[in-house]
Structure of Tyrosine--tRNA ligase:
Amino acid sequence: MIDEALREINRGCAEIIDNERIEKLLKAYFQEGKTYTVKAGFDPTAPDLHLGHTVLLQKLATFQKYGARVQFLIGSFTATIGDPTGKNATRKVLSKEDIIKNIESYTTQAFKILDESKTDIVYNDDWLGKMSAADLIALASNLTVARMLERDDFSKRFKTNVAIATSEFMYPLLQGYDSVYLKSDIEIGGTDQKFNLLMGRQLQKVYNIKKQQAILMMPILEGLDGVQKMSKSLGNYIGVSDEPNDMFGKVLSISDELMWRYFELLSDKSLDEIAALERAVKEGKLHPKKVKEDLALEITARFHDKEAAQNAKEEFDRIHSKSQIPNDISEFSCEGPIWIAKALVDCKMEPSTSQARRDIKQGGVKIDQKKVSDEKLELSSGEYLLQVGKRKFAKLKVK
Amino acid sequence: MIDEALREINRGCAEIIDNERIEKLLKAYFQEGKTYTVKAGFDPTAPDLHLGHTVLLQKLATFQKYGARVQFLIGSFTATIGDPTGKNATRKVLSKEDIIKNIESYTTQAFKILDESKTDIVYNDDWLGKMSAADLIALASNLTVARMLERDDFSKRFKTNVAIATSEFMYPLLQGYDSVYLKSDIEIGGTDQKFNLLMGRQLQKVYNIKKQQAILMMPILEGLDGVQKMSKSLGNYIGVSDEPNDMFGKVLSISDELMWRYFELLSDKSLDEIAALERAVKEGKLHPKKVKEDLALEITARFHDKEAAQNAKEEFDRIHSKSQIPNDISEFSCEGPIWIAKALVDCKMEPSTSQARRDIKQGGVKIDQKKVSDEKLELSSGEYLLQVGKRKFAKLKVK
């Protein structure tokens, strides 16, 4: 049981620091029912979330399944700090009210994945807002400038002479201090957050917290193209608030390879279930499109509901069946005008004109992808794509 | 009058930034009686002050003569900040009480130079202690890391991989902010403080103070050797609490060249008075030693009193007259034993033995630097240094 939990927790991770600590926490949960805390930080801006953002939420949900309380940390502190110079136009000062409103919209989405009863939403301005300049200076004494400049983004900016405000050096320290204040057992974040995540571990040590947080880093999710990271600006994203039809259709559009990646990072299916699906596909027992539909249904149902997902699937089928025209359609020609029922028989699509008339009445016959309703229709000269039911096609040239 | 004041203020400065502002402040003082503020920062540690420290105080005193109120700023804020890591063993956390005690000892010395009635002692933890972490971050947003690393000492340490704590980046900002809070019109400091002094000017601008502080930088005072900076560890210093005799003697020990430097930076004499002395020495009308004695008297009287200074001079003369033996002393020889009075006549030091006897009676005759009291003394064989009064010497070899 612990092994399975650990496997699910490790699933899809880019890097884990102190997995041993995670093992011990799981053991204590399974053997003594002890819960533990997993911290994840979120911006108090209200972006339109896309699936890329939910990779982290999925992992948090997994932790909740195995005894974790989630510390859903809102980075509200920096958002409330003004820039006295007014230079930094990009940093909009948010009021606490703005932030709470943004976060409500955020959590409404997040709680489609997270268990609300096992989630504590905390705002770091509750403690950082009370911190004095003296405290901050004492905090800053724990890190050297050289070490700070090792951080990837700072290092790049420093080398290319892109300005770094000294205030920016404070943010990793504050994020780290959050872990001190919250006494987090585990923190999770993106791989791009490694420096800041380690800062929490380091500062917990400085502030005499006996056991430092384990760190779990999730990879960046690829977008629909399977190459670049999912992002709004690249247009390769599935938005959490996309309409069910869009959501379903976008999942179906990904490659088979990317599908397994999405299963790993986004599906609630267990690793064993996914492995079974993979086997079945490999052995030809299951069509990959069927598996992809299941994933699309799961994801669509998550952010809407099962019925909406099912409707989306049907709508998708309806629309896309249109274009399910085989490439090798038999071609016929005849003198016109010709009665539609006779034409269908001539083209070997119907056994008899009476059967043809019945099918027309039931809406089973299309010309150029439009349903035929008039059973007496005469085709004059021209070219026609005839269709009976879903699968029978013929091209007819009427002279 | 303004011109003279400006000359005295400019006197000895290493660098002045915005001298125009100083001119305007002086004009407003002389024409409208408007006072203005001059800030200088001091450490709340209680070092044994030496004359090097008083260069700044002398300049402040000059400003006070010309309408300034001195903001005697105690950097008490950082001294009260602890280092949570305990790494920084050199930084002793001082209590407010410690600081006040230290500063009392400091100002007791300083008020021998400064006019207490025109001095406001201010402690920066009074406002920095109330500053929040958020305020500090906003403050820090005004300066880039690159600019901070341009500071001489940071730059050197960064290049040679000597650790700089990120907290150290905060100190120049805080010192600058002091000028914002105090709305200082002028700040003075050592040349090594240029970066921090400019920070005050820059931040005043950011915080919308219409007229930024002028800056006046004083050079580092050379020690008794005239080469290296005056410092306790080099042993080339004159301590403010040195005994009058030491103080007087140390000043007399400096070179003539250094004497003029000390006049410029340490004397209350006006530039005109000093120029007159220089002329007189150049023209041979005044012995440089006499001028040096005046300087020694002035400095000793400043930290003790006139009487103590005068006593020190006399004591000095008494002791040092011993060694005032010319290099080119005439040598004589004679058969012994010989009567002292006759010996003095033979050596052409006395016109007659009766005069010699009178001088001996009055204590005006020395042998080997010891007074002779016995007018009947016979010199047996040996070598003797004979002296009559202060200036007459002879060497006598008695065979």
